[in-house]
Amino acid sequence: MTLIEVDGVSKSFASRHGSISIMSEISFDVADSDFLALVGPSGCGKSTLLRLIQGLDKPTAGSIRFRGHPVSQVCHEMAMVFQNFALYPWLSVKENVALGLEARGWSEARIEAQVDRYISVTGLVGFEEAYPRELSGGMRQRVGLARALAVEPSVLLMDEPFSALDPLTAESLREEVLQLWRDPALPPEAVVLVTHNIEEALVMADRIIVMSRRPGRVLAGVPVNLPRPRDRKSPAFYELTDYVYSLITEGRGPGAATNGPGATPLPPGHG
Asked: Is residue 232 part of a domain?
């Protein structure tokens, strides 16, 4: 079942020097059980696209639909995990996790039970009364993840959630996110991850949308048909990494001239 439809989306901003085009005619779908990654160079509109999908901003042209309905305002069936944690420093871990639930008007007992559940799920037990300044970067990102999951979203949007972490912490959190996603008893139904890290995208996602330099457009949709857990040292992984890297650096999808705009070239081993 299709959850999200991004159809011909363009976005531009006004400036003193005229209109600046961020992305142009972006189209793709996100289905139930999808783990989709958006990769591309800085400034191509990946993070802006997440905001458009959730309804935090509106496209200049094109449309975005969720479960067949136009996204015309903030969609509360989606939740965002941010790169910079976006925690309130004056609130405790428990209070930060409860924020989205309080806005929904839930009873105190229901909020407490939900917060306790997702504090446990994300490994924060024992840190309920701690403040963000007392936590490591990895722990703060766990709080951001717990806050997003507590509202039990259908779609989890992740904007470079591991880029501010040290490599070992990032690797640990990637695996934990994958474990949560694979658990049918837990949300979400789909994940959309924005990342600059091609290896990260290949380790986590089942499909990658490769975007060009600004104005961002879709160069290719790349299926990642590698068995889990992904072996980064395997020849197939190396080959797929090189393929995605070449798409970004060359700025065009192989075969685009013969297949036309928006064509989706096949990655190595899929021809």
From this structure: no
The answer to whether residue 42 is domain-embedded is no
Q: What is the CA radius of gyration of the chain?
A: 19
Residue range of the domain that includes 132: 87-152+167-187
pTM of the prediction? 0.89
SS (H, E, C) the chain: CEEEEEEEEEEEEEECCEEEEEEEEEEEEEECCCEEEEECCCCCCHHHHHHHHHCCCCCCEEEEEECCEECCCCCCCEEEECCCCCCCCCCCHHHHHHHHHHCCCCCHHHHHHHHHHHHHHCCCCCCCCCCHHHCCHHHHHHHHHHHHHHCCCCEEEEECCCCCCCHHHHHHHHHHHHHHHHCCCCCCCEEEEECCCHHHHHHHCCEEEEECCCCECEEEEEECCCCCCCCCCCHHHHHHHHHHHHHHHHCCCCCHHHHCCCCCCCCCCCC
Q: Is residue 113 part of a domain?
A: yes
Total number of domains in the chain: 1
Q: What is the CATH number of the domain that holds 119?
A: 3.40.50.300
β partners of residue 194: 38, 159
Task: Tell me the pLDDT of the chain (271 aa) as tens digits.
Answer: 899 999 999 999 887 777 889 999 999 999 999 999 999 999 899 999 999 999 999 999 999 999 999 999 999 899 999 888 889 999 999 999 998 887 788 889 999 999 999 999 899 999 999 999 999 999 999 999 999 999 999 999 999 999 888 888 889 899 988 988 888 888 899 999 999 999 999 999 999 999 999 999 999 999 999 999 999 999 999 999 999 999 999 877 654 433 333 334 445 544 3
